[in-house]
Amino acid sequence: MELEQTFTQALEYGRQYISGGQVATYIPELAKADPNWLAVCAVTTDLQSYAYGNAGQKFTLQSIAKVISLILALESVGEDVVFSKVGMEPTGDPFNSIVKLEKVSTHTPYNPMINAGAISVATNIPGATLEQRFDNFLQFTRKICGNEDISLSFETYLSEKRTGDRNRALAYMMKSGGVLTGSVEEHLDLYFMICSVLATCRDIAFLGAVLANNGIHPQTGEQLVSPRHLKIVRSLMVTCGMYDASGYFATMVGLPSKSGVGGGIVSVVPNVMGIGVFGPALDERGNSIGGVKILEYLSEQLNLSMF
Amino acid sequence: MELEQTFTQALEYGRQYISGGQVATYIPELAKADPNWLAVCAVTTDLQSYAYGNAGQKFTLQSIAKVISLILALESVGEDVVFSKVGMEPTGDPFNSIVKLEKVSTHTPYNPMINAGAISVATNIPGATLEQRFDNFLQFTRKICGNEDISLSFETYLSEKRTGDRNRALAYMMKSGGVLTGSVEEHLDLYFMICSVLATCRDIAFLGAVLANNGIHPQTGEQLVSPRHLKIVRSLMVTCGMYDASGYFATMVGLPSKSGVGGGIVSVVPNVMGIGVFGPALDERGNSIGGVKILEYLSEQLNLSMF
Amino acid sequence: MELEQTFTQALEYGRQYISGGQVATYIPELAKADPNWLAVCAVTTDLQSYAYGNAGQKFTLQSIAKVISLILALESVGEDVVFSKVGMEPTGDPFNSIVKLEKVSTHTPYNPMINAGAISVATNIPGATLEQRFDNFLQFTRKICGNEDISLSFETYLSEKRTGDRNRALAYMMKSGGVLTGSVEEHLDLYFMICSVLATCRDIAFLGAVLANNGIHPQTGEQLVSPRHLKIVRSLMVTCGMYDASGYFATMVGLPSKSGVGGGIVSVVPNVMGIGVFGPALDERGNSIGGVKILEYLSEQLNLSMF
Amino acid sequence: MELEQTFTQALEYGRQYISGGQVATYIPELAKADPNWLAVCAVTTDLQSYAYGNAGQKFTLQSIAKVISLILALESVGEDVVFSKVGMEPTGDPFNSIVKLEKVSTHTPYNPMINAGAISVATNIPGATLEQRFDNFLQFTRKICGNEDISLSFETYLSEKRTGDRNRALAYMMKSGGVLTGSVEEHLDLYFMICSVLATCRDIAFLGAVLANNGIHPQTGEQLVSPRHLKIVRSLMVTCGMYDASGYFATMVGLPSKSGVGGGIVSVVPNVMGIGVFGPALDERGNSIGGVKILEYLSEQLNLSMF
What we know:
The structure is a homotetramer. By secondary structure, the first copy, chain A, is of the alpha+beta class.
């Protein structure tokens, strides 16, 4: 098949850039990753599936969880509630910057794709207890990724929790302005947990396929994301999804995408397919260096850009 | 026709919001505008044309010129040269902010849609003299807007020049880092001139139609924007085109767009049409308050969003 | 006596400005203060004592504690240890700003007189437990203020602790850079406690007298502050002691001083006396509005300025 | 004499640190300086004079001119006029930073010792033409430095003018907020000229002596600085005079001082003497590295600190 050949070539193209990147080291679990791992998967809206490279290797979702969490929050409490405590604008700053929080008297974060914004968004995940809230997230993740075996990396969660002081600073800043209420540590626990969910490249490709398929699960036909929420999620992935390289990525790839420091990137080709790439060697902005190149190659060869 | 009715309704919908906005007053020429003016035009890729409201009213392009200037620069000197002196990332700051220029040791502006970035981009417009450079811009504008009568508002140019000290600050900051070379005042003269070109709602709709038609002039068939440059321009319009409301606008309208404080907004519906709206009453971010609402209505009713 | 008359006149002069200020309201205990309270006290290096107005009214030290804490830290662990985790430079920003913490990769606060800096400094107060550390602070405060009855306002401490999220943000930011180690909440507990110590105008005048008397307790002759530490403390009081009005205050009063949002200000007239003023109505920078005017009057009439 | 020995030792002490610094290179005239030059001079209020090292070597005043310009402005138009267009607060930022100008809607600079503030202050120097205004500055400089031969380095002025784009950015930012009116280039010309005045170590020691002698010329008895203006100048020298090392310098030296990138530092020992040091090798903050050490030595040995 021609498509298969393109994926294979994309993988080889991306592999050439791996040596220019570095594995995240702020927690031991991420530092254990092999920088040479590289994978690309795709799931089409008619359920064709493609997988190349280390497609079975699990990694933690990290910031990719921000997309799932945003969807779940929107579907649970609606747009007005979610965006009363987070904005929709890119920041131009690193994902963990606290500067713009001080600029607004309410300390409301600019968008759901930076850490502060994701912490705010996650407060909307329903549940009476932390366990229930995380379980709701996990069940939703399993459903939207089409994999009942997705689970938490407890070690990563504990590491995130242990080293999460910058996120605590963001959270307490927001609490001081009223964006967060209740226990900050519990909000952070949930945030650290959702960041620590293990998935494979294929899982996030499935997530991308749901977002490509107008929010409808391609197997069950269930509407997991409403049309309005889909617009919000896909547009925020374009404007803010690739950290402070989002603008460049939009010109080079032109697909709604979200990366995580675990090395994964999910991309959405509307009406066609979801793509998942994985490569833990990161560029200086925190995006998978090989993964970005794979997506550039695919976008170019298959003419996928929205722009 | 159904489409005609939708445009008419969009105009009436937008009109309800006019009273919440204010005409720009930093120069007398803008302050003279009637806040009640409102118009919407469209030009399809197969050259159907629609015009409603004050469609014949001229206004200055202001920041909409940033799009034309970017295209001309890219077509003239290529992507590498243009982006050696400007980035591609949104800032999260107001369009005239100088703060992020200081953050980078070279004082390179973040993107072509903020003032600093547009001043940098315009230096690439070719010509031996200021007059030739502006003439090149004007000829290109006439061509891409499909109107040979487009001309400069000399009064606006003089006003911009007289009150342009904030832009001078941006320009000298860039010069101190090597982003600009040569005469700052001449660079600014060109920038002030291109901002002061008079156009109508129909003219910018035609510009949008070219960007919708894969960069090809729908009448002459001339390729005015190469495919790669088209991706750059349309993606930057999405991530940075509506000042620091770009993220919100992407969720609500979902079309590559660029606004100007003269009250115009150009929007691109890929493969379908260009839309121009005009309404000099601005919201607090500097976007036409009625114009944004017209575009929201059209996007919703005609299902135009890319997302 | 002429001096007595000057103090009386200073009090009346300051009283005229009270109506322009407002009592701090971020915690109930501060909001309970009567904005009309006003007092001025002085203790000379030869132990003459002066007291006018509401000199017996207790108030919480708030930021004045930063001076005592800095002295105790310096005397306990030395200059090198203290200033390995805090700088000596004014910030130009409000006392609770977090922006400059992000600018430095280690997240080291700029000086001991802003909240972040004071939290860092307080970590040097010795003691095996929180109770011992606070007790060390309290005993030192009693000694340097010459009043064995000085005690904690437990209600204020609890309020500070309950509403201290901005300070938590500062603290976690510092912890993420390694400035703080161990339990943030315990560090904050100590900080909230030392801010919540109750004193009178006379008590802080005595503190000023020690700093005026070359660091020597004027009654016991004990050297409480070494000569080198005295220079550090008095110079930081001048450059950073009056929040972001320190520069103006230096020209108008010209004395090493430190204010607190409880309404107190301690001023040092080297070799002559310590002055304490108290008035809970604050100006917009957080300094006692009447207190500042009293000090301006005294400095002018008695020619006290160092400059 | 003992004092002579102390000066000699101070010079030798300072010399040890020279190799850790670097000569300013942003203009050729500064780059020509020999990094090994080092000098210390003093002029007492009773006109005793001391000079050691390269005391006859001329250098440009650079930022030391900010002090003279501030005095002349204050004496010419008064405190209220001067401080309607500049503040009194330290910034915590580098001397050429533009960030804080944007924070204030009027773009008023924070203090007279940073570039923006000094440009604002210099607009108050009286004169019908640029030539007259500079001549007024020059005459006043000759008088307050006690040297009729002080003159302009025209080469330095031209270099400053040619490379002064960062200062132009500051100036146009201020003009856009109304802090400056009229010709920015003329304001900058004056500013560049006053920075380019040549002086020796002995000249600035004399300046220091006037400020030490309550503003009275020690030879002629003329009151060059009024008592109120003296407080303003000496306090601003303490809080803001040594760039963003002012706080540290206050603890280590404790004297009102002002440095320039030409390598000079003027220090004031109230009622005793003025000290001038000179050494073009600068530390990373822009202060003479040997000069600072000389002053630290003198302050320590002679117990000069105000604190």
